[in-house]
Design brief:
The structure is a homotetramer of 306-residue chains.
Chain A (H helix, E strand, L loop, with lengths): L4 H11 L7 E2 L4 H4 L7 E6 L4 E5 L5 E2 L4 H12 L2 H5 L15 H5 L10 H14 L3 H13 L5 E2 L1 H9 L2 H12 L7 H12 L1 E3 L1 H7 L1 H4 L14 H14 L5 H7 L4 E3 L4 E6 L3 E6 L2 E2 L6 H14 L5
Antiparallel strand pairs in A: 1-10, 2-3, 2-9, 4-6, 5-6, 7-8, 8-9
Helix pairs in contact in A: 1-15, 3-6, 6-9, 6-10, 7-10, 7-11, 8-10, 13-14
Chain lengths: 306, 306, 306, 306
Amino acid sequence: MKPTSEILTNILDDVRHLIGQGKVADYIPALAEVPNTKLGIAVYTNQGEVIKAGDADEGFSIQSISKALSLTLAMGLYQPDEIWSRVGKEPSGQAFNSLIQLEVEQGIPRNPFINAGAIVVADMLSSRLSAPRQRLLDFARQLSGEQHILYDKVVAASEMMHSDRNAAIAYLMRSFGNFHNDVLPVLNNYFHACALKMSCVELAKTFSYLANKGVSVHTGEEIISPTQSKQVNALLATCGLYDGAGEFAYRVGMPGKSGVGGGIVAIVPGEMTIAVWSPELDASGNSLAGTRALELLAQRIGRSIF
Amino acid sequence: MKPTSEILTNILDDVRHLIGQGKVADYIPALAEVPNTKLGIAVYTNQGEVIKAGDADEGFSIQSISKALSLTLAMGLYQPDEIWSRVGKEPSGQAFNSLIQLEVEQGIPRNPFINAGAIVVADMLSSRLSAPRQRLLDFARQLSGEQHILYDKVVAASEMMHSDRNAAIAYLMRSFGNFHNDVLPVLNNYFHACALKMSCVELAKTFSYLANKGVSVHTGEEIISPTQSKQVNALLATCGLYDGAGEFAYRVGMPGKSGVGGGIVAIVPGEMTIAVWSPELDASGNSLAGTRALELLAQRIGRSIF
Amino acid sequence: MKPTSEILTNILDDVRHLIGQGKVADYIPALAEVPNTKLGIAVYTNQGEVIKAGDADEGFSIQSISKALSLTLAMGLYQPDEIWSRVGKEPSGQAFNSLIQLEVEQGIPRNPFINAGAIVVADMLSSRLSAPRQRLLDFARQLSGEQHILYDKVVAASEMMHSDRNAAIAYLMRSFGNFHNDVLPVLNNYFHACALKMSCVELAKTFSYLANKGVSVHTGEEIISPTQSKQVNALLATCGLYDGAGEFAYRVGMPGKSGVGGGIVAIVPGEMTIAVWSPELDASGNSLAGTRALELLAQRIGRSIF
Amino acid sequence: MKPTSEILTNILDDVRHLIGQGKVADYIPALAEVPNTKLGIAVYTNQGEVIKAGDADEGFSIQSISKALSLTLAMGLYQPDEIWSRVGKEPSGQAFNSLIQLEVEQGIPRNPFINAGAIVVADMLSSRLSAPRQRLLDFARQLSGEQHILYDKVVAASEMMHSDRNAAIAYLMRSFGNFHNDVLPVLNNYFHACALKMSCVELAKTFSYLANKGVSVHTGEEIISPTQSKQVNALLATCGLYDGAGEFAYRVGMPGKSGVGGGIVAIVPGEMTIAVWSPELDASGNSLAGTRALELLAQRIGRSIF
């Protein structure tokens, strides 16, 4: 069955009762203040059709969803070996910001979607780009086709005020030789990426290349190769939802990437890109109602990679 | 492109040079003595066609591949909550036989495909089946359609002689209340499951229900529901290859389950089941040439779930 | 100042208010049923004088205090290298029954006073003694001069019923080659040692050799050499109180060994042996009021090794 | 027996063959360049007598020995609860610069003698002293009676160039709220403390208060109270030699503090303070020949706290 706005609206109605059972991220005020009742979903098909419901056009902090965008950018700047010698491809089995595994495994992060891995990717971008922060913003604008997209400066500044643990991660990697630039400027770039403000519709459009063998549905450009597109989806499927990737695969059955702003992007390869938003998180740090919405969507339109 | 025996033969030729670069499992003599030159592959399509090459009809010790069979059996005997309250659905990020995470997470194994998880599943089977060992053997015979399938008694006895670490795992779970029967008889069943001797062709037939929404292609019976079939595939994709699941997803892009006997089963949902065998293992304990063969097959026939 | 029975009585009065703030060990009924109001202390001087107060003549389960006795016995049967290649001499920094460090450090326990270490020592005794259980009992009777000392069979049997975690520890060590006999008989011996029932007076007499350069004050026999006596005291000082050894050294300043039965033995080298008993434990598993009593005693008689 | 210069000279002769079997610290050039043949020992009795042998008057980088000095300073500025709520009193059971335990135990270092603990102490000094670096230098000069004592600026600068891991430790503690000042200035102070250049004779004089109930033998001043002196010795005995404290207690039997510059200070409470220097380190990071020299000294003069 094809997704329709009616299906999407029904799904939002069916998950709304979950609001109140999760917890909005509160480590920075700018996230804590987002109303927990926000709820939106958007589907962008490989034919370029947008289907949406709820608060699908309202921008929110994409947070860790940006890690997939940064990795995509790095894959265009580096050879595979250059990337995968500095960051692994395996699930971590641990919290997204743990330093334990990083110390045991001598500064090589498990995958590019935990904080340590994304910070290494940010370090890579800093080494090869003269203005990495502007480049990422341009990339998001290009892929979404929306020139108005901005960094939320309040969020970025607030993250920087609470950056101690990420600084610890970066310094630990630098002690192992796996971080090459100054810590604070790279973290500043990293936090700006997290502070990208985008809507469900914009996110679905932005990541359409992962559903379309590397070619942006919106622009028609090849962003990465078909093989690279499969690879990113494989990493998303095994590592994209922190320590909840198995549960997400079990229930939803699509590659995806979540952020603590409550957004999740999910991919149906060959068919469509989906973005959902509900700020309250489950114990793994993934959107509670958002995950359930994707689970219902997978059931009702009969899509799953499995 | 459809798989043909020529494609399969070429793939075996292309991976044969890897033999000598891995390491045959040697913790028990019965495995150490298997010639490292064995190499076979079989595809079983959802239309019931068998395509094969190399040593595809020679039986070998399926080892951990049996964990997927045992889980399937348990899913027919228990409600989901009964299973998933005792074993998780997440990748472990650790070696397959580590006790560290098991202690930290209070006796709940990360997933049913690491040793601890499979031992809990074996404990479940012992609680609900009067003759669990015979039942599993019958199940393998039924699914493969081959009545001659046997437990390799030498392997089973040898495993039992080297069972200390698995006994430690079982006792640790029992100390947390997550193991209910006597340890040694359950381990004995567990080791017998690992000692099932099957060929690539038999394995591909046996697991065809995972490629066919829960219905065995060979027998036409519904083994598990379509939803359960997706769930098992999701768990295989995230947890089926020990601490190499991400790498396998990245390179092969199919749900799969490996064993230290050198076998790997991989699923193309909706299309086919694949089994490959080459005894030498990589650092994660997965068949070195077998993984490469699946990677080449995925490329040449253009199949991937991503 | 010399200890007097008045000083000891005053100390017990001064610590009695702590009763109710700790927790009696309750993992087996035989320990849980001990009245939490029991409180006793005994000093045995190197001149052979007994000074005591409270329930100093009532027997209780000495539990881990037996680990020091078993080690002493093993030191008479093995060369130092034979012992210290199988068990370390360092504090663990972890709970007394953790398997984590044991796995990381490949089956070599940190020291002979955590469970794993004492189980290795029990394994050593089983290898060299024809009747290790009787031998340890004889040893306790000889050192205390009390022939009536017995194993509490109810405690020993009850421990055996709750032995899963210790069995896990033993099997894990066996998987690393650091355990040589059958697991259950050795555990049975180990639990019997823990189930020795002795009073404060008997304990103080028993361990007098550690305060007297290896020579039992009571019998005049050299139990171990002066050097070995110093070595045992050194190990007690750094490892004798589980993960509370630093705190105990800081507050009490004597080598000591505690048991979850609420007993603690402490040594003032060259002068006296002290035993105290109060069943309620602190968070580290050491007697709450007992530790405080030793702290007060150290202050009031002005003794400390520091 | 009393220590004499002949005894000390003989001991140095007897340990000299160990040179070549350890490893000079080489993480910074300034340490790596120190000749491995340096060997000195000094005893400072509570009667104010200096006995010495070898390179006992040559200054070297005291490194972690400074941690005991900084703690002493902090004990004069803070109430016990203020200190011990921010840093523990237990051995770590891990390497001196590990972050693993620090994350598990939520930013509270195990004890003041591992890096994390000493960095917290440095943070405390920064909070209460206007010029903590000058104050520590004055303290060392006062205690040793040598006004010429200096920070080795080359060592301090070199440490700062290799400070990534310690920065990671500090940031991790700050993320848990257990670090209050700017990271880099505190680290700079910390590295300066490590870069104090002192000789064996100066060290023995400096730490004489620990052998003399808190009163400096050299100046006659009470540096800390008798109780505090015992407490520091207790912490040194259980935590002063990194993950080799148990071995040091077993072999030497004195409270001590080592540094990667190859120095060790050891205390015989009530009698004397000893300092030894030999740059090559054992696997735990303690001076190899230095530890052996202290072991021989303990045997030959018959001193031990046990």
